[in-house]
Write a structure and sequence with these properties.
heterodimer, A: about 55% helix, about 10% strand, globular, B: two-stranded antiparallel sheet, about 50% helix
Chain lengths: ~290, ~300
C-alpha cells in the first residue's frame, strides 16, 4: 500500500508539474522488446507480450492524466507475419482478449476512442470483426484518441494513399492540380490526427522500422534502452521534458514547411468524403456480420 | 486523486476524514499551483545542468579515446579488417550514409566525408535546411578532392543538388519501369568509379511524396502505367532515381545538429535506417567516425521476424 501510495503521489505531482510547460498533443510508441524481456526472465514469449500490454495500459492512463489528445502505438507490423505461426497466433489471440477486456474495463480505459490503423484485410475475420466492434463501441467516447497500428507499415499506408489518388485521377474525380499535401494527408490512416510530437522507441534499437514515416517528419524522436515492459512513467516524463526543450524548434520547422501548403478545394473534399464513406461502409459491414453471428 | 483515499484512513470517523480530504484539496488548489511552477522550472534547470555535465563528460571521453586512435589511413584500413573479422567476412557496413546537418562548416564536413569515402562508402545524403550546402557544393567537392589527394586517392564526386521537388521526364520514367520489369537490375557495383552525394532539405521531404503521387497519377491517366503496377517498389525507385540509376536507401543516418528533432528528412529514406545522434559537426572526431561504423556492424536487423 505504501508503495502504491508513493507511486500515486509521484505521478500526481509530476503530472501537475509537467503540465506547466507545453504538453505534446500526439505521442507515438514503438513498443519493442517484449520477446527479449521474456527471454531475459527465462519465460515464454507470451509472458513478454502480456507484461507489455500491462505497461501499455499504464502508459495510456498516464497520457490521459497529462491530457494528451492522441496516442499511437505500433502493435503489429505487416513484417511480423514472418514470425512463427505459433507466435503470430499468440499475438492475435492476445489482441482479441485485450480488445474485449478494454471494452469491459470502464474504470481504466480512460474513455478513449479506439481506432485500429493498418491493412486489416490481412487479418482473420474474427479479428476484423473484433476491431469493428471496439471501434464502434468507442466512437462516441470523448477521451483521447488511441490509435493501434495493427497489420501496419508506413510504406503500405503511403502506397495505399497514392493508389487511392491515382484511382481518383483515372476516374476523373480529381485533376492534377488537386493533388497537394492537404489531399495526401487527408487520405492517410491518421487523417484526423495532428502531427506526431514525440516518437518513442524502446529496447535500444535506433530505427523507425517503417512506422509513421510521413507523420514523424518533424517529431522529437527518442530511443530508450529499456524493453517495453520496463518502460516506466519516469521515461515518459523525461521524453516530455525533452520535447518541451525543443518544442519551439519543431514549431518553427513545421511553420516553414507549411507556408505554401494549399488548402483542399471542393473536388478534393468531395473525393475524400467519398473514400472515407467507402471505408466506413466496409467497417460497418464487418460489424453487422459480427452482430448477426452473436 | 486516488492517493487521497489511501492517505485518509476509511476507518476514521466521517467528520475527520471529510475535513482532512477538504484540507488536502484546499492545500493543493492554493499552494500547489505556484509550487508546481517552481518545481517545473527547477526540473528544467536540473535537466539543463545534467545535459551540460553529460556533454562535458562525453567530450572528455571522446578526447581521451582519440589519443589512442589518431586519424590515419592505416586506422581506417584496420577498422575495415576488424569489422570483417568480427562478422566472419560478411561485413555489415552501410552502403549509403545520410547526414542531418545544422551548422555547416565546409572544411570539417569535407574531412568527415573523406573518412567515409576512404572506408569505401559510395552514397551520401546531406540534409541541410539552412541552404548553405546548395550554394557551396562545388567548394565542398573541391575540399573533398583535396583531402583525398593528400592520401594519394582519386575519385570522381558527383553531387546532385536535390533542392526543390524534382521532376522526371519520359525517358527517366521508362528507365524506372525497366528496373521494375527486371530489364535493368540494381547493383551495388554500379557506381564503383565515383561517389554520389545527394544534397536535400525539407522541401524534398514530404513534398517529394506528393510530387511522386502526381507523377504516378499522370502516368496512370496517360496509360504509361497500369494501376496494378503501383507498388511500394515502384514508389521507392521513383523517389530514389538520380540520373539513370536507383540510389539504395540509406542504412545509416547520422544526426549532427545537436537535437533530437527529425527536421523533415525524406520520409521513405528512413524506413530501415539506423539513426545515430552524434552531437554537432565540430565535435565529430575521427574516433566518432570509427564508432559509427563499428556500432553499425554490430546491429542486427530482424525486419519484423
Amino acid at each position: 500500500d505504501t508503495k502504491v501510495m508513493g507511486s500515486c503521489i509521484y505521478r500526481t505531482i509530476m503530472s501537475n508539474v509537467i503540465k506547466n510547460g507545453q504538453i505534446p498533443r500526439h505521442i507515438a510508441f514503438i513498443m519493442d522488446g517484449n520477446r527479449r524481456f521474456a527471454r531475459q526472465h527465462d519465460q515464454k514469449v507470451s509472458y513478454g507480450h502480456n507484461q507489455g500490454s500491462r505497461t501499455l495500459l499504464q502508459i495510456i492512463q498516464l497520457c490521459s492524466e497529462l491530457e494528451i489528445d492522441f496516442v499511437t502505438v505500433f502493435a503489429f507490423s505487416i513484417e511480423n507475419f514472418k514470425r512463427s505461426k505459433e507466435e503470430v497466433n499468440g499475438i492475435m489471440n492476445l489482441a482479441l482478449q485485450k480488445f474485449s477486456e478494454f471494452l469491459e474495463d470502464t474504470d481504466h480505459n480512460v474513455n478513449a476512442k479506439v481506432r485500429v490503423l493498418g491493412d486489416i484485410s490481412l487479418l482473420s475475420q474474427e479479428i476484423q470483426k473484433s476491431i469493428a466492434t471496439i471501434e464502434n463501441s468507442t466512437k462516441d467516447n470523448d477521451g483521447m484518441v488511441f490509435n493501434i497500428c495493427f497489420s501496419y507499415t508506413s510504406t503500405e499506408e503511403i502506397t495505399r494513399t497514392i493508389k487511392m489518388i491515382a484511382n481518383g485521377s483515372m476516374d476523373h474525380y480529381i485533376q492534377e492540380d488537386d493533388i497537394n499535401k492537404s489531399l495526401f494527408e487527408a487520405l492517410l490512416y491518421t487523417y484526423d490526427c495532428c502531427e506526431i510530437d514525440i516518437l518513442i522507441r524502446t529496447s535500444g534499437e535506433i530505427r523507425l522500422s517503417d512506422f509513421m514515416l510521413y507523420q514523424s517528419a518533424y517529431s522529437c524522436i527518442l530511443f530508450y534502452d529499456v524493453y517495453w515492459p520496463e518502460f516506466k512513467p519516469y521515461f515518459l516524463y523525461h521524453a516530455i521534458i525533452m520535447y518541451q526543450k525543443q518544442a519551439k524548434l519543431i514549431q518553427e520547422r513545421r511553420k516553414i514547411e507549411n507556408e505554401n501548403k494549399q488548402e483542399l478545394n471542393t473536388r478534393n473534399t468531395r473525393f475524400i468524403n467519398n473514400q472515407r464513406e467507402i471505408i466506413q461502409n466496409q467497417r460497418h459491414e464487418l460489424l453487422i456480420n459480427n452482430q448477426n453471428i452473436n | 486523486m486516488t492517493w487521497i483515499g489511501l492517505v485518509v484512513n476509511s476507518k476514521w470517523p466521517g467528520v475527520v476524514t471529510n475535513v482532512l480530504k477538504e484540507g488536502i484539496l484546499l492545500f493543493l488548489s492554493v499552494i500547489a499551483k505556484p509550487l508546481s511552477l517552481v518545481l517545473f522550472h527547477l526540473i528544467h534547470i536540473i535537466y539543463n545542468i545534467s545535459m551540460h555535465v553529460n556533454r562535458l563528460k562525453e567530450t572528455y571521453k571522446w578526447k581521451k579515446i582519440s589519443k589512442a586512435y589518431p586519424e590515419s589511413m592505416l586506422a581506417i584500413e584496420n577498422l575495415k579488417c576488424d569489422i570483417s573479422e568480427a562478422t566472419n567476412g560478411d561485413a555489415n557496413v552501410p552502403i549509403h550514409v545520410g547526414f542531418i546537418l545544422d551548422n555547416i562548416n565546409l572544411e570539417k564536413l569535407a574531412r568527415v566525408l573523406s573518412w567515409y569515402i576512404i572506408f569505401g562508402i559510395k552514397y551520401f545524403t546531406l540534409h541541410d535546411n539552412s541552404g548553405k550546402l546548395s550554394s557551396n557544393y562545388e567548394d565542398l567537392r573541391s575540399l573533398i578532392l583535396a583531402n583525398l589527394n593528400t592520401h594519394n586517392l582519386n575519385t570522381d564526386i558527383f553531387i546532385n543538388d536535390d533542392h526543390g521537388v524534382k521532376t522526371l521526364d519520359i525517358s527517366d520514367i521508362e528507365t524506372v519501369l525497366e528496373y521494375e520489369s527486371g530489364q535493368l537490375t540494381e547493383s551495388e557495383d554500379e557506381i564503383q568509379e565515383f561517389v554520389l552525394i545527394n544534397i536535400t532539405n525539407y522541401e524534398v521531404g514530404r513534398d517529394s511524396l506528393v510530387s511522386t503521387t502526381r507523377l504516378i497519377s499522370n502516368m496512370v491517366t496517360e496509360n504509361i502505367l497500369e494501376y496494378d503496377q503501383i507498388t511500394d517498389s515502384l514508389i521507392r525507385r521513383l523517389l530514389s532515381y538520380i540520373n539513370g540509376f536507383i540510389v539504395p536507401l540509406p542504412d545509416l543516418v547520422i544526426k549532427l545538429d545537436n537535437n533530437s528533432v527529425n527536421q523533415g528528412y525524406k520520409p521513405w529514406d528512413l524506413r530501415y535506417a539506423e539513426i545515430m545522434y552524434m552531437g554537432d559537426i565540430e565535435q565529430f572526431s575521427f574516433v566518432k567516425f570509427m564508432y559509427t561504423l563499428e556500432s553499425f556492424s554490430k546491429i542486427e536487423q530482424r525486419f519484423g521476424s
